[in-house]
Amino acid sequence: MRKDPFEFAKPSIVWVCILIGIPAFIFRARQVQEETKQNRAHMQCFANLQQIDLTAQAWALENKKALTDTYSLSDTTILAYMKGSMLPVCPLGGTYSSGTNHGDVPKCSVPGHRLLYPTPMGGYVR
Ligand SMILES: [Zn+2]
Known about the structure:
Blueprint: H1 10-62, H2 76-79, E1 96-97, E2 107-108, E3 117-118, E4 124-125
Antiparallel strand pairs: 1-2, 3-4
């Protein structure tokens, strides 16, 4: 019977696969976990910005404001429209600010946290 010339290497190949594969798997699992955490935070911030925008628009409509009129998120009459009369909090610690006027969307200070509305034609507006 002929002996396998690579018989000596088989156990070491298994060990190499284990020693590289397990840390690589753990590294990738942590990467995915971090991406999921970031995506969740982004979605929560998006929902907060949407709530602020809708609240500011409702307030503007009720108070007969024009799109060019400015507003402040510290205005207590706008905050009264919010749940608990308070601004929501960005999950990554960003601070919210109003748009330049009622025609603009509110903003978050965290890069990438912004309010975009999908259009029926694809893409986003505002
Ligand atoms: Zn944010």
